Request: fold
Amino acid sequence: MLRLHSVVNAHLPASLQYATLHTMSWKPTLFLFALLPLLAASEVVKPETAGFSSDRLIRVGETIQRHIDARNISGAVTLVARNGRIAHLQSHGLMDIEAKRPMSKDAIFRVFSMSKPVAGVAILMLIEQGKVRLNDPVSKFIPELKGMKVAVTDSGPGAAAASAPPKYYTIPAVREITIQDLLTHVSGLASGPVGTAETRKMFEGLASSTLAQIIPQYAAVPLDFQPGSRWAYSPLAGFDTLGRVVEVASGVSFDQFLKDNLFAPLGMKTTAFHPGDDNWPRVATAYHRADGTLQKVASPNRLQSKTYFSGAGGLVSTAEDYAQFAMMLAAGGSWNGKRILSPKTVEWMASAFVPDTVQGRSAGRAYGLSVQLVTDPVRAGYRMSAGSFGWDGAYGTHFWVDPKEKLAGVMMIQTDNPDRQLDRDFENAVMQAIVE
Reply:
């Protein structure tokens, strides 16, 4: 027991160690097993214990440094876990170039579209509870979205210039959009030029609005194509609408649902729709990459709101926080002793609902329920196992789960990353380090 006490104390601040010793003197087993899951979630182990080569895993840092030296990014935090153990957690470069502030492992990042898989899991939890079905029409929860119209654009020789708002007429949708359509980006809701132009006027004052106020307004926005006819990314509207579905189906606000059912059980203490006034010093500065320079972006995400909870792109998080979510998925829906989803539901989430043969998808890359699925790594050009899944964010955040290797990788940067080459380099550096 003294040896166990020493192990536990090694992970506690000195102020708690005396209390720990006396607590353990009368209920040692209960205390230890209550504490061990918390230690397992955050402890960084020797890479070899997770099947990595320490010498090879160093290449993750070398890869990131090359991109820093090339002024592609200001800095990063990278995390790699396998078999439920974090084998790599490292900060790189600067979180603010002008202030010369070193990047911190607990830096907070705007994760943008990495919010979408979180919203997707919330919907899957409600499906498991029987409150939502994949084939439910969205109008069951938001009646205003019944009877949507589809835009037909003028694409002939006399069509307007690309910079001008598109001219179009509307026809009835052949069917209603469903929950599955929204989760898989085949709904047509604000997924093209017409939807983008029509929703732009709704963005003013968005941060001070609520989902209940904004989402019904999409009834006036024509769909960009017939539901299910193609895949086209819905950057904002689709998953914000799913956030409102969560509110209606659960009876609580979207942020409260996530806090109670996902963030608190997984120990995601920082993840939220707003960093909180006291946490702004921990928020990494955002940069735009242009002409070999990094230009500071003052406020890249207007969706960091205390009232508008954007499931499409509003969350902030840390690498370690988001890793709890990723490791839960890698472990089949359970993490830190908390069951979030069943293994079958995680398997379902990462199934090819939209195969790569559908218009809009790329070779080897299907789409599941809120995540991209790599069905053929060779054709996709991705260095990971077939069946791996994940997503990324506009300012460079990226995560993936490799179920075959029981692996989760998280990379947090805060520079817009249109070519996503750093994602591929990070994946390569991780996968080449697996030796058993």
Summary: The two ends are 33 Å apart (CA to CA). Confidence is low (pLDDT under 50) at residues 1-40, 156-161. The chain is about 35% helix and 15% strand.
